[in-house]
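S.,

Sequence below, as promised.
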Amino acid sequence: MIKEQVGNRIKELRKRLGLSQEEFAFKCEMDRTYITSLERGKRNVSLENLDKIAKAFDMSLSEFFDFDN
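The prediction came back faster than expected:
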């Protein structure tokens, strides 16, 4: 369940910024297929990669996990 929540959060925030998966992956210095699998809830994300993702959204990890915003 947490994989799906994290994936949905990444997708939601990415779309708010108007970025494609490829553009966002480039910003995170990750592969597009990795971002796709995260958004679909198919992969676990490491803390290191989660930190990169949060920084790409210009937010802290605690802000990233504030699913109400």
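The chain has a mean pLDDT of 95.

Coffee later?
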